[in-house]
Amino acid sequence: MSKVVVLKHPLIDHKMAKIRDKATETKQFRETVSEIGMLVTYEITRDFETVPKMVETPITTTTAYVLKKPVVIVPILRAGLGMVEGIHNIIPSARIGHVGVYRDEETLEPHEYFAKFPLDIADSAVLVVDPMLATGGSASAAITMVKRRGATDIRFVGLVGCPEGVKRLQKDHPDVDIYLAAMDERLNEKGYIVPGLGDCGDRLFGTK
Ligand code: URA
Fold this sequence. Notes:
Catalyzes the conversion of uracil and 5-phospho-alpha-D-ribose 1-diphosphate (PRPP) to UMP and diphosphate. Its EC number is 2.4.2.9. 5-phospho-alpha-D-ribose 1-diphosphate binds at residues 78, 103, 130-138, 199. Uracil binds at residues 193, 198-200. The longest helix has 19 residues, at 26-44. The strands form 5 sheets. A 6-stranded parallel beta sheet has the order 1-12-10-8-4-5, sandwiched between helices. The chain is α/β, with parallel strands linked by helices. Helix 1 (10-20) packs antiparallel against helix 2 and helix 2 (26-44) packs across helix 3. The protein has helices spanning 10-20, 26-44, 81-90, 137-148, 163-172, 200-205; strands spanning 4-6, 50-56, 61-67, 71-75, 95-96, 98-103, 110-116, 125-129, 132-133, 153-157, 160-161, 177-180, 182-183, 186-187, 193-194. Bound molecules: uracil (URA). Uracil binds next to helix 6.
């Protein structure tokens, strides 16, 4: 069974309060989502492996340590895009794949409409990113898409989760650890997380 980590940090809590507030406008919402993306990445990458590398400092030669694997960030379109800049800021060597998933209105099954990944995704540590882990359908489909390209080292990164989404992801992908900034109560009948923060994509991009 995968682990679920709800990241507790005063700065994350403070910034979550900002994005939950419906009075927060698009610019600040977008900037704050990005900042939280940066903070959660610091925690999520804590167990990444490093390898020694000889480095010449201005004074002498020393053994330094660098990340063992390349990192690939995979935002799920479109809300996932909001967290990419913050993550990329602290892992600038990361490449970025993209995944688009839509839900068939009749079968309710998620389908891939866009996928573009770096060639070495199979050897990389992959962060699949979507701020809202609601039903878990899109996240599960996106992870399946990444696995189909050979990736085995995958983490899911979100801001707000709920029991329904966590349960689905753990059932479909027991090998994928889940990292969240907050774990909320439930989904409502319209598929929104309660208390949540509303439609993250709309709030990021100023749409309705
Ligand atoms: N997607 C969102 O943007 N918000 C929710 O509450 C659930 C899914």
